[in-house]
C-alpha cells in the first residue's frame, strides 16, 4: 500500500519535472500547453525562468520528500499549488482571465494528495 | 542630319512597336513535373495508361528517350531549376535523408543554396510573370520558399509529399502538411484534390495578368507520389487492366516500347530481385494488388486530364500558340510500401496515422495506397531498378518538349540529356541571358547544363560529345555517363555496392555488364568519377547508411527530439533520486 502511495505521489512530481524541463528545452511548446504565447525579450526570460523554476522546484521537492521521508518537503509544493489555484480564481474574478476549472481542480487535488499522504510517507521511514 | 518632328514620332512609334512585338514573340513556358512517374508510365512511352493530353503534346514536340534526372525528388528539383549539380546547389539528397555527419557541410543542408539562381529569378528579371503551383521541397523556412526564389505567385507544398485529398501529412515525421500561398502558411479548400487544385491555381495565376508580358508556370504535381490516390471514376477505368500482374505488365510495356522505337528492338530486360512471384499469390491477393496499380493508373490518368484542362484553357484564351510545354518526372517509379501492405503491422501503422488500405476504398479520401517494388519495376519497364537507385529505372524518365514554337509533328531524340539541361534550355527559348558571375550581390555557381533548344529544333543530334563526362551521386548510389557508356554503383538492399559498366544506348535494361570485357573503359570512367566527386565535394555516406532508416531517424529527431530530450533529462533526475532512495 505504501509503495502504491509513493508511486501516486511520484507521478505529479515527474509531471512537474517534465513541464519545467520543457520550459528549458522547448519553451514555445511549454507556453502553448499552458495557453500562453511565448513572449520576447525580458518577458521570455521571465516566462522561462520563473515558470520553469516553479515546476522544477515542485517536482524536486516532492522527490526529496519521498527520498528523505521528511514531510516538510511536501508542504512547500502543496502551498504553491494552493496558491496557484487561488490566484487562478482571483485572475478569473477580478482580472478578466478565462476560468480554468480543470487546472484548478488538478492543483487542489495534487496539493491535497501531498498534504494527506505526507504523514503516512513520513511515518513509515 | 536634321529630323522633322513627324519623322521623330514615326521612329519612336516604330521602336515601341518593335519592342512590343519582341515581348509578344517571347514564348510562355509551362514546366510540368510529375512526381515519381516511371519511364513507361505514359502512353507515348509504352504505357497502357490513357494519357491523351501528354500524347497530344508529344505529337507536337520532341520526346527524349535518354533523359536522366537524379533518382530522388529534391536533388532533381534543385538541378532542374538551377542547371547546377546537386552537390553544389545545396541539395545532394532530400533533407530528411541526409546523415547528421553531412549536415554540417554548407552544401549538404538539403536547402536550395543562395549561391545558385533559379530559372524563375532569371525570367522574373527578364520581365516574365513567374508562377508556381505544387511541390517545392527545397526548404520550408520563410526565405527558402519559392516566393523568395523568383516566383511571383505561388501555392506550394514544402514537404516531400502529402495527402492528395486533404491537408494531412502522409508520414508521421511531419506534424502537418506544410502548404504556403505566396510565402504565407495557408489551408487547403474542402474539395481539394491535388492535380485538379494545382491546375486551377495555375489557371488563376495566368488569368490574373492580362498584360502582354509572357509567363513561366512551374507545375510540380503531387501525382504520382505516395499516397497513391485518385478519383474513383479514373481508377474504375483500370480495375480489370492489371489482373495479369506485374511481370506480365513489365513484359507488355517492354514490347510496346520496342514497337514505338523507345528502346532498341533487341534490348534485353532483367527481373529485379525485389520482384515477387505473381503466380504464388492467392486470388484475393492478386485482386488487391491489381487494385493498387489501378489507382496508380487512375492517378496518372487524372493528372493527364487536368493537364488537358490547362492546355484547353490556353487555347481558349489565345495563349497556346505561343507556349512551350516541358513535361517530365523528378525520378523513376517509387517502390515504397512493400508487397504485403495488408499485413497487420502495416494496417496498424496506417490506422495510427488515420489511414486505411481496404480494397473497396483504396485511392479514396482516407486511404493510403502504394504500388510496392514489383509494380514499381513494371512502371519503370524495361529498365532496371527504380527510385533512389542509380539504375536506369531510377534515373531515366520521360521528357517531352512541345508546343507550336517547337514543332508541329512528333520527333524523338535518343541523345543523352540530363536534368541540368532544362534551365539552359528555357533560357535559350526565352532569349534570357545565363546568370552573370554575380547575382543579387553574391557570386553565383555557374550552370553545367547544356541547352536542348537546338536539339529540339532538329539542328543537332547530340549536346554531349564523347569527351563529356557527367557524374552523379545520391546517398552513396552513383553513376558516371560518357557517350553510350555508364558506370553505376547501387547500394543495398537491392544493389551490391559494386561498380558495373553498361552501354545504355544498346542495353538500356543494364543486363550486360561490360566491366570484364572493357576493363580500360571501366578504369577511365572510374577515374573521371573520382574527379567529379572531388571537384563537387561529394561526401562518402556512412558505411551502414540506409536512406529509409535515416529518414526515420531524422524525422524522429526533428519532430520529437525536444520531447525526447525532456524525457531523457526527467529520467536522469528521477533515476538519481531512485538510486539514492535504494541506497538509503
Number-wise, the strands of chain A total 0
Largest interface: A-B, 15 and 13 residues
Mean pLDDT of chain A: 92
The percent of residues in helical segments of chain B reads 25-40%
Structural class of chain B: alpha/beta
User: What would CATH call the class of the largest domain in chain B?
Assistant: Alpha Beta
The main sheet of chain B orders its strands as 7-6-5-4-8-1-9-10-2-11
Rg of chain B, alpha carbons: 25 Å
Q: What is the number of beta strands of chain B?
A: 18
Sheet with most strands of chain A: none
Which CATH architecture of the largest domain in chain B is right? Answer: 3-Layer(aba) Sandwich
Major β-sheet profile of chain B: 10 strands, mixed
Transmembrane segments (chain B): 564-581
Pfam families (chain B): Sulfatase
Keywords (chain B): Calcium, Membrane, Metal-binding, Signal, Transmembrane, Transmembrane helix
InterPro entries (chain B): Sulfatase, Sulfatase_CS, Sulfatase_N
Describe the structure.
Chain A: The chain crosses the membrane at residues 46-67, 74-93, 99-116. Chain A: Keywords: Membrane, Transmembrane, Transmembrane helix. Chain A: This is DUF4345 family protein. The complex is a heterodimer of chains A (125) and B (584). In chain A, 84% of the residues lie in helices and 0% in strands. Chain A has helices at 2-25, 27-33, 41-68, 72-94, 101-123. In chain A, helix 1 crosses helix 5, helix 3 runs parallel beside helix 5 and helix 4 packs antiparallel against helix 5. The mean pLDDT of chain A is 92. Chain B has 2 domains: 8-461, Alkaline Phosphatase, subunit A (3-Layer(aba) Sandwich); 546-584. Chain B has 16 helices and 18 strands. Chain B has helices at 5-25, 52-59, 73-82, 100-103, 119-125, 194-207, 232-235, 246-260, 283-316, 344-352, 372-379, 392-395, 422-429, 453-456, 519-536, 547-583; strands at 28-34, 61-64, 67-68, 129-135, 153-157, 179-181, 184-185, 215-220, 323-329, 399-402, 411-413, 417-418, 438-439, 442-443, 470-474, 477-482, 485-489, 499-503. In chain B, the strands form 4 sheets. In chain B, strands 7-6-5-4-8-1-9-10-2-11 form a 10-stranded mixed beta sheet, with helices on both faces. In chain B, helix 6 runs parallel beside helix 9 and helix 8 (246-260) runs parallel beside helix 11. The longest helix of chain B has 37 residues, at 547-583. Chain B is globular. The chains are: A mainly alpha (125), B alpha/beta (584). Chain A binds chain B through residues 10, 14, 17-18, 21-22, 25-26, 29, 59-60, 63-64, 66-67, and chain B through 562-563, 565-567, 569-570, 573-574, 577, 580-581, 584.
